[in-house]
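Running low. Got one?
___
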Amino acid sequence: MKTRVAVLLGAFLLLAAWPWLGSAYGIDLVNKILIYALLALSLELIVGGTGLVCFGQAAFFGIGAYAAVKSEVASLLLALPLSVGLAGLYALVVGALSLRTQGVYFIMVTLAFAQMAYYVVHDTPLGGGTDGIYMYAKPTLGAWLDLDKPLAIYGLTLASVALVFALLAVMRRGQFGRALDGIRVNEPRMRATGFSTYPYKLAAFTLSGAIAGWAGFLFAVKDGFVNPELLSWHLSGAVLIMIILGGLGHLRGAVMGAFAFTLLQELFRSEAVFGSLARHWHLGLGLFIILSVALLPKGLAGLPGQLRERLAGKAAILQENA
């Protein structure tokens, strides 16, 4: 446990020092990855924590982003809660209806609600259509924080990821987290003992949507632009791949998966590395993910344990042969 905490603190310190170590492109890339990490943490709460596979997480992300642009609120203390609140409210509505279904039906219902939100911003003047909307004035915190500066938005993003990570870690060790674990492992048994699982699932789903809206707000402020693709099912699928690649059931896995997936995208898109094959980067990325899932069934977060098991097995074989 102490080793894990030390590694997490070391990673945070490295990320905090990154603006003084990396280039402008590198800072922007890591900022984007951290926003995806926050979005992955939101999905990890319901998929890895509760066992509910949601295929509409991008809808909450996009709602948070569009709320940041459309509201034109100048104060960060008002703009951020507005994005989080609207995304959480939509998640509450979606969860109240979709959580009455199970399995593949739950997946399809969440996807349907996400597509509804997508077509609202895609086909109506509300979201600016396919052209999207620009953010002409970014929120500020008086003279303390100007989000028009790259280092300021980077610091806010890093602080947001650290805060959400810590809150989810504490929550999962409490009664609420233990209840979600029970629902994930065996919900029928929980119900048989007289435990009402629906309120817990709805609370987790709503909190997940609110965190996704938080990530959407940061994305909109960073780029100063939003478009309907932020609500597309492609992004929902990508975030699902992130948490699988990182390792389901681990908060650190969500962050690791966001870094791994985004950096792999950058690698396979690089013409300097793959030449003309970079135009077909989806193929290379897909093959790599298939190999990763086959070789690392517990994801990147489970790699140390997997290595320890193999070393222990080899040590036992050597002792038997000695």
In short: The mean pLDDT is 89. DSSP finds 13 helices and four strands in the chain. The beta strands are 133-134, 140-141, 145-146, 225-226. The longest helix spans residues 198-223.
